[in-house]
Amino acid sequence: MCCSARVRSQSRRQCRHSVDQTEFLDVMEIEKCIQLFKWFKLENFFLLLFILLIVPLVILNFAEMSSEEKLVSVDFEVFGRVQGVFFRKYTEQQAKRLGLRGWCMNTLQDTVKGVIEGNPSKIGEMKQWLQKTGSPQSRIDKAVFTNEKDISKFSYDSFKIKR
């Protein structure tokens, strides 16, 4: 039975007594109904807010935490025209852009080698960049990745060029 129906039925029952008392009961019942409605409305608002905003954030946070907690380390060596073309500088910029740590350096064999550490998906992006993109003036013949392993913590504070 809804509030207005309850008020009407009580009004009819109270009609035998006095009009003033009936009006007073109607106002009291209506006020109770309004307070109850406000309480449910407010409770539902917070419940809906919790479900729509908080729960997805918590789920996303756990998903991000699990992927962020996993760290990978990979050694790399890039062959081709990679020295004298700012390859190391561009490699450093790309690694920092992706939030990776490690180092790179020129070798006596005219290659660039190094280590990258970080989130597996970002490592994948960096591998692709080292194989296909490089610096604007470079020519990449091949990139070799070795010693890929899971690590529990970073070994380096940032990505640096070794000289």
TrEMBL record:
E.C. designation(s): 3.6.1.7
Please report the organism this UniProt entry assigns to the protein.
Exocentrus adspersus
What protein am I looking at? acylphosphatase
Q: Which reaction does it catalyse?
A: an acyl phosphate + H2O = a carboxylate + phosphate + H(+)
The record ties this protein, via InterPro entries, to: Acylphosphatase, Acylphosphatase-like_dom, Acylphosphatase-like_dom_sf, Acylphosphatase_CS
- Keywords assigned: Hydrolase, Membrane, Transmembrane, Transmembrane helix
Citing just one GO molecular function, the answer is: acylphosphatase activity
Q: Which residue numbers delimit the Acylphosphatase-like domain?
A: 73-163
